[in-house]
Amino acid sequence: MSAACTLVGSSPTGPGRRTTVGTSGGRFGLEARGRGVSPVQGAWSRVVSSKALDAHASAWSPPTALRAVHDLFVAGEVDSTYLDSTSIRPIVAESWRRSLAKGVDPDWEGADSSAATLRLARMRDTHPLASALPVIRRLLVDDARDSGVVVAITSADGTLLWVEGDPEALRKAESMNFVPGADWSERRVGTNAPGTALALDRELQIRSSEHFSRVAQRWSCTAAPVHDPGTGDLLGAIDLTGGVEVASAQALALVRATAVAVENHLALLRLTKPVAAVGDQVKARLRVLGAGRPRWQFTDERGNRRTSSLTPRHADILVLLTQHPEGLSADHLAMMLDDKDLDVVTVRAEMSRLRRVIKPVAVGSRPYRLLEPVVSDVNEVFDELRAGRVAAALDVYTGALLPQSMSPAVARLRTELSTSLRTAVIATGDLAVLRHWLDLPEGQDDRDGWRLLHDGAGAGSVGQARARGHLAGLDMDLA
């Protein structure tokens, strides 16, 4: 069995040659048709000497001009609309605006090491991209070791999982904490290729002074997101960080091709996975946090991951069943869903429809209960809080539990979860964790939280200015 994606034209192997990203005998790689040369052998020397680099670079704003505009913008001497009148690329201008709005300090000396640092080994062991490391190393890392280039692989939340490449470049990257376990999401460090690629879910390049944080402005980077081939969920990003050559069109093609190869690799693993291995996995996941539609993710009989949307009533029922593994009677479930008007006949009808929706997961009767393990994002947040990993809990918590639900039992659980998380955030005394909470919809009206950020941020810092402005807005709302 094989799968392939062919790139023609400006590929890393040279103009007009065909590059196939795919499988051969279960191995993935890039096969250059013509002279049988590995496409990444000497890739960086070809990129640096290529005329394509000069042509691509001509589209970028000069670094000196970028730094001048950046200095004016972060100092508050010009407003955000001023960026539209400059030669800064729109994608960078929008990222700068988001970075400033989230209170990112442009003079921060390095990315925060999130709580994920403490669980890095566990993240690596369980992350889907771990199985694709040989593919990434073959296509990118092996030829980056003597090229001044760093290759990074991130999780979907921006945590750096693996950082490999040229030893000297790795040592220099450590000075800005570009190391495994560090959080390089856009919300933490501002505009950067891996973080912004994840925020926008698209491939992109960031060159030197386009970075929001000054500590990163001597680097250029190219990144592409990687998705689960079955569900389409964002898994993480692949990033190249180095000198100006990393911002070339050929480098972008190389990273893009590697991301395609990784997704093909994951798809093949799923197709060839033994049936026993599929049965050992949790079959279903329930996603009910945040403003989006509640989702049911499950593994079908062939081992493929599927995602479907849930009705509000079905989402309520599944939340309650995951919180009560012992089961619920029809009367008790009716009271938890609606303490006034819901009758048992309606509950039974809904349960009948729900069974068809969540197959192959079975629901028992008398009492109603889930007969197979189901992982929910609600329980994941509670588990992280019980383990003392507050930043990790925040990474899972994308917003309030089913905010539109009128179920009294769901409303109670919503309040319990939100209050537990906020209390844990305040107890950490960590301003980075506090900023993450305040960025959530619930945090926008948390006056005590904004006061803590104002008092804890450095005098005259961007974070303090942002907190002062937000507090003024809250006071006006109350006036």
UniProtKB/TrEMBL annotation:
Name recorded for this polypeptide: GAF domain-containing protein
Classification via InterPro entries: GAF (IPR003018), GAF-like_dom_sf (IPR029016)
A Pfam family this chain is assigned to: GAF
Chain positions covered by the region annotation Disordered: 1-34
Residue ranges constituting the GAF domain according to the UniProt record: 152-265
Amino acid composition bias (Low complexity), ranges on this chain: 13-22
Organism: Mycolicibacterium hodleri
